[in-house]
Amino acid sequence: MDFAYSIAGFAVGAIVGLTGVGGGSLMTPLLVLLFGIHPSVAVGTDLLYAAITKAGGTLAHSLKGSVDWAITRRLACGSIPASLLTLWGVHTYAPGGIEGATGVISVALGVALVLTAIAIVFRSRIQALSQRVMGAQPNPARIGALTVLTGAILGVLVSISSVGAGALGVTALFFLYPSLPALRIVGSDIAHAVPLTAVAGMGHWALGTVDWTLLGSLLIGSLPGIWLGSHVSARVPDRVLRPILASTLVLVGAKLITH
User: Fold this and answer.
1) What band does 203 get if pLDDT is binned at 50, 70 and 90?
2) In 2, 18, 25, 238, which residue has its Cα 20 to 30 A from 245's Cα atom?
3) Distance separating alpha carbons of residues 236 and 4, to the nearest angstrom
4) Which of 213, 259, 238 shows the shortest CA–CA distance to 19?
5) What is the rounded distance in angstroms from the CA atom of residue 117 to the CA atom of residue 243?
6) How many CB atoms are closer than 10 A to CB 8?
7) Looking at residues 103-121, what average pLDDT do you find?
């Protein structure tokens, strides 16, 4: 095991615990740009990393009653089939299969990072826009269908870039369910991220793009990092954290797109 990977895992885990977002947004580009890991291996390994770390968050939110399982099921109905179809399509039609899709994965990751940064900065405005667009009493059938569609979009993004299940998922839910308490939106999004990242990660494993030694090294650092970040988060103003994180994501995303 490489100790540098554990340090990276600790740093990303601390940021996730501190801000609630940034797992795939930071870990995958860190592995690609800093450590030179092949993009497909970085994505596949990070997906299983996310599934394991977010499972603990799901348990905590479930015990608090802050998971809306109906919303989680709707998201999963769209995301899991979309994830499997995306992996199959890339493996079947991309030149060289998943290993040969380096350029596609890098660009997709960069675009997803920029979208995540926009979601972080404008989350409150998106929520206000939703209240104007959806109205006070939106149609339940329409919201249900849009939730499944949102899941499908997240499934595609997460499968090829490992980014989107966090900030983008939360922002979409804020738009679709503006009257739902923020804690239940976050809890539902984390709960949905576990099966999505697990299925996508297992798909990458089947395609041979998961590095198990790397995964173990990341987890050794990330688990204490998440614990520390969650305890420090109460002392750091949100207005300071979000612009810093968003700026970092834009810079990294632009680098990947033009790489």
Assistant:
1) very high
2) 2
3) 26
4) 238
5) 9
6) 22
7) 82
CA–CA separation, 118 vs 25, rounded Å?
A: 13
Note the pLDDT of residue 149.
96
- Number of domains comprising the chain: 1
Per-residue tokens: 156 = 């595609």
Distance from C-alpha of 48 to C-alpha of 197, rounded to nearest angstrom: 6
The predicted-structure confidence for 167-184, as pLDDT tens digits, reads as follows 788 888 888 888 888 778
Residue that the structure tokens 């404008």 belong to? 122
* Mean pLDDT for the stretch of residues 41-46: 93
Q: What is the pLDDT of residue 107?
A: 85
Cα(181)–Cα(236) distance, integer angstroms: 22
CB-CB contact of 62 with 191 (8 Å): yes
- Give yes or no for residue 2 having a pLDDT over 70: yes
Amino acid letter, residue 129: L
> What domain range includes position 204?
3-257
Report the alpha-carbon distance of residue 2 to residue 124 in Å, rounded. 40
